[in-house]
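Hi D.,

Good news: the full-assembly prediction came through. Inputs first.
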Amino acid sequence: MSDPIKDLENFNPQGLPMDPLTPSEVRRRGDRVRRRNNGVLALGAAAAIAVVATSGVFINNAVDKGQEPAPASPSQTKNAEQAEIPADFPLAAGVRGATETDTAAMSGLDYCGVTPLADLDPADVRSIGLSGGETSITRTLYLLDSSEASVAAHEAILDAADACTDGDPKDSGDVAIHRDGEGWPGSTVTEDFAHGESTTEPSVEVVNVVSAGPALLVTSTIGSWSADINAGVGSVRSDDQQVMLAMNDFGDYDAPQTDTSRGDDSGDTGSGASTIRDDFPLAGGWPDDSKAEKGKNMGLQGPNRSLAPLEFQACGEDWQEPEYADRLRADWNNVEDYRSRQLTTYADADTAVAAVESLIAQQRACPKDPVRDDGYVNNREVREVPLGGEAWAILERDTMDGADSPFGESTLVVRVGNAVLVIRGGGHGGYPSGDGQAQIDAMNAQAADVISSMCEFTEEGC
Amino acid sequence: MNEQEFDDFYTASFARITGQVYAMIGNRDEAQECVQEAFVKAWAHRRKLEKADHPEAWVRVTAHRLAISRWRRTKLAKRAQDRAVSALTVAPPVDEKYVALVAALKKLPEPQRRALVLHHMCDLPVAAVAHEVGAPEGTVKARLSRGRDALAALLSDNEPNGFQEGASHV
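Then the structure:
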């Protein structure tokens, strides 16, 4: 008999037949995963910035609750040397009749067999719990050694949930991660054991996670939100708000970096509404209608569903667009200044991702159109733009005998969730200076309100 | 990590990690798919990968978690094949010695199997194994000791069915 340990040490994986993807294909798929998730994350970050800049919902909520407003931006830890949870910390706020203990009641939090809190070694810990009938609420506050430890534990929870998002639906619930949003600086993980079916039974566990300085708050609430998970997230965040606000005493809010693209890799998390409301501000940021000269098709046209769709062509071939759910169009025209916008929604984020991917592939494959009858040649450059879930600029400019001409057209394609916005400018509104980046920046700035309103087409909402 | 660095990392470590995950889970195709998917995640999360002290360990842990997740689905035979990253392949048989070894490993409790693979196949010291599996070093040592005994018993020529009941339980 051979020595099994030696066999194990000499196990030669090179002898295994393998058929791996090429490195470039792995990167391409990784980029796709990243783009799918960045939409939601970018909007979450934008919402957090908006809270700081405008003192909006966050402060309003705090005032409503009679609390001091809390900043949402991370900074220096206020009270890093704190070794105990203050006796008057309102962990049971809003939970009448809760039982308080000095144990870590949330240590058994489990996503697909991974228990991210099981090995935490806090300087102090306290829990409250209330269960009975259809109610089950648990809150645990950990006081750890440092703000870094708090964020690491926070990240461990999200890692475990992330690895469980494609778990067996027969064996566990549908796990989803909900990032920070207006008035909420933490994360939320939901597990739906009813798999979206409407039921009056408590079948959804909503876990809130908030890091502030060395403190980590983890709460679990079970309710019957299977038919509307977002309602459960909103409800529990509201219920936990007073505790979350009190955590500011431990330091400023912090969270794992959002640029790590966490979430359900199926892409479903980016999907939102597919019907565009009639009053969607598609024309936002354009000059007033009165600024255009009088004439047919001058000034503002739309927004409506009757204007002709914007077309894409490259090397003489029309782009074959996949089936879409809804579309709104608007134009603003003046002499030698043609601006168009088109907002299209698809059935889900995957379809929107595929639509953009096929469009960009078609445009990229044709950097130069054939010479036209008038002697001009359209040159095309496609650039990725850091905007929304993903964005691309298609910069087109005519040349004559190799020399630049003043004619050009620019298009910005921005996907957020399951919606794709196309912004197109021609004439003075198109490519006036030949400076592609300046053109992209101008179009982006002009459509900023439109793009920020597209948050309603994500699962997270606005 | 730039494209070239990632490509080099992927090319150099894919087969090795796949072999390790295969030894942990006992299914070659599943191991390859999970490692493939872990590398896709690695590129998508490359900033996190840059911060990791041991990128290979990051991919291995991610692949192992994916394997656990997939196992939970496959045990009810419900996994949709179209969600697999790689095309489904029918691989030729592996060296018989390794088949027997992996078959024996599969009979061990998962913590023992993982500890044996990480320590003896991945050549990680006990402290690193403890860090990767999130258990105290003493527990890892116990798992290794019991795992070695159980593996030897399983592969014993004299005892083709020599798995000693209870020997594998930590």
